[in-house]
Specification:
Distance between the termini: 79 Å
Shape: elongated
Number of helices: 2
Radius of gyration: 24 Å
Order of helices and strands: HH
Oligomer: single chain
Largest sheet: none
Structural class: mainly alpha
């Protein structure tokens, strides 16, 4: 068996494995984890909160509005 045949066999086994996965469940788990991360970041104190990419600092309200 030559190198080309081995590579083709590995490629076909990899493709058949990827086709056997339940992609809807995997995508659902990923979305659920992202949602939990966002909820947790909102729930914790500001000093423990994570700065998201491109996030903006919240400006303090003037004293007369409070």
């Amino acid at each position: 068996m030559g190198m080309k045949e081995k590579i083709q066999k590995i490629w076909s086994l990899t493709l058949s494995y990827l086709k056997s996965l339940n992609w809807i469940v995997l995508i659902g788990i990923a979305v659920f984890c992202i949602a939990l991360a966002v909820i947790n970041n909102i729930r914790v104190d500001n000093d423990k909160s994570v700065d998201w990419i491109g996030s903006q600092d919240v400006l303090a309200k003037p004293a007369e509005i409070l």
